[in-house]
Specification:
Layout (H helix, E strand, L loop, with lengths): L2 H16 L28 H11 L4 H18 L2 H5 L2 H16 L3 H7 L4 H4 L2 H16 L4 H4 L1 H14 L10 H17 L3 H5 L2 H6 L8 E5 L10 H5 L20 H5 L5 E5 L1
Antiparallel strand pairs: 1-2
Helix pairs in contact: 2-3, 2-8, 10-11
The protein binds iron/sulfur cluster (3 copies).
One iron/sulfur cluster binds next to helix 15.
Length: about 270
């Protein structure tokens, strides 16, 4: 089995195991990735909701504060952001919509927007969302992020509306959540991994671990590089791979490793 087929298999298995709650298999634990706990089919719970709840109640217990951070920390230290490339169902959905985004990249307007100098800075927004929405507003006001979260809308609200419409009571934030969800859909069909690049707070929690993780992607023997750009062309996160060093955006998908004609790019353990 080819490497990328193994990754696809991993994503499909994780996607279905995430939804085992539909068969009554609910664990109550946290996912090490992004998926809504409100989904009637969800096996487990979103790490962000647990963290929000903990900060809001200022009750830093094992289950709601320490455990979500420990599980993300452990995976981060060992494999960096590999969870995003191999496990997260929202990453898997974007792997599918990314095919459309890649085709759209050929249009001059999309190309122009993608080439804007501001693009690398937009990636910092996810850290702002993590600190501002998940921690600060939870501390000062109450839950906001999980009320307007488009992933919650996709994997929580929509399944409830389909499976248990009578039980759904829209809250104050519903119209805002609907608008944000529509923008989320436009984003993931126009920018490959657009949600992961710019907005995902779970990605923001995992990204810094790439700097210290045991497993990471490295470019070896740079002098042999022919600058064919094959690696940059396939990278779903739009990374300048030749010049990268433990890039926080790398999701360890291995596409660049597979495509380099010089076998210059490797999974490195250190
Ligand atoms: S960045 Fe967020 S949505 Fe994207 S793959 Fe990682 S956890 Fe999932
Ligand atoms: S640098 Fe390579 S492994 Fe990392 S996201 Fe890009 S293609 Fe995937
Ligand atoms: S694919 Fe390999 S040879 Fe081509 S630019 Fe990337 S590192 Fe260099």
């Amino acid at each position: 089995m080819k490497f990328q087929e193994k990754r696809l298999l991993s994503q499909i298995i994780l996607f279905f195991s995430t939804n085992l709650g539909a068969l009554g298999f609910k664990t109550g634990f946290c996912y090490p990735f992004f998926y809504c706990q409100a989904c009637p089919a969800a096996t487990s719970a979103c790490p962000l909701r647990a963290l929000e709840q903990s900060v809001y109640k200022q009750s830093f217990t094992w289950r709601f504060f320490v455990y979500p951070l420990l599980i993300l920390g452990f995976l981060g230290v060992t494999t960096g952001r590999a969870v995003c490339g191999w496990a997260c169902p929202i990453g898997f959905i974007q792997r599918c919509t990314g095919r459309v985004a890649r085709k759209l990249k050929r249009f001059p307007l999309v190309k122009k927007i993608g080439g804007l100098k501001i693009e690398p800075y937009l990636r910092y927004m996810k850290y702002g969302i993590l600190i501002g929405f998940v921690f600060l507003t939870s501390f000062l006001i109450g839950f906001i992020f999980t009320d307007i979260c488009p992933v919650g809308f996709l994997t929580g609200t929509i399944p409830i509306l389909i499976l248990n419409p009578g039980k759904y009571v829209p809250n104050y934030f519903f119209p805002v959540a609907l608008v944000i969800f529509s923008l989320f859909l436009i984003l993931i069909f126009t920018v490959e991994r657009g949600w992961c690049r710019y907005f995902c707070p779970v990605g923001a929690l995992l990204a810094p671990f790439n700097k210290i993780s045991f497993l990471h992607i490295a470019v070896e023997q740079k002098e042999e590089c022919t600058h064919c750009n094959a690696c940059i062309d396939v990278c779903p996160m739009g990374i300048d791979i030749y010049n990268m060093h433990r890039d926080p955006e790398c999701i360890l998908c291995g596409k660049c490793v597979n495509v380099c004609p010089k076998n210059n790019i490797i999974f490195k353990r250190s």
